[in-house]
Request: fold
Amino acid sequence: MLQKIIRNDKYRPEMNRTILQDHTSALHVLVVDDEEDVRLATAEYLAVLHNIKADLAGSGEEALLLLLNTRYDAIISDYEMEDMSGIDLLKTIRARGDDTPFIIFTGRGREEVVIAAFENGADGYVMKGGEIRSQFAELAQKVTTIAQKKQTEKALSEIQDQFAEIYINSPIAIELYDKDGRLLDINPACCDLFGVHSSDDVRGFSLFDDPNVPKERLEALKKGETIRYRSVFDFDLVKNLNLYTTSSGEKFKSLYNQQGRKDNHRSADYPDVSWRPPAVRIPGPYR
Reply:
């Protein structure tokens, strides 16, 4: 049915091999369908009308071979194919540890097909049929949304990994607080500075109860402002108020930078210059 609609579409863009082969695109997808007219038309519409480059596979086995050497932003697959169904292709891809976004594009609208697709790791489902341009517009929108979401998640994961490495290895003491000022964690440099073994030694400390922070600075921090100030950290005062207990009261800070956000965590970093007198630590040039 879809082949007939495609052939009769008088508005269909002319097939242009140069466009499909050399087209520069933000997204690169793999189209898998054992019906040649459908896969060619899918690639054509996506490329010409939606700026999405497509490679083509006429079977699940061919798709698996292409996936060995090429990383795609998304895979668009028919459900019912002779050699391997779209669900079986999906299972094989996921068994390889490949999390490329996978979209089922089929004329089969049975509920069990949809359920099987999502249970096996599909990211989307688009029905064939109906007005041809609207159908491919829906497919293109689904591909773009899912692929961009995956790219964003990957970028965020990389940023989190980079932060974790910096956080652990930084020579600057760093504290992490929640939006209510409760201490969540401190890095190894902060443990060394405060003379504690781990964040468990200072668990429960509240930034907003810290007597060493000027009140006006705390109010600014609660509003989500970034604050910078210089002060001598009085551990005795903190201990007397039972804010938290440390194994050492020998080390102090004289400057820290805090950034507060109304909906996110707060952070504080304490530059430590160990050759300074222990009562007051003054950092080098402030960044």
Summary: Residues 153 and 247 are 41 Å apart (CA to CA). The longest helix spans residues 132-169. The first strand starts at residue 27 and ends at 32.
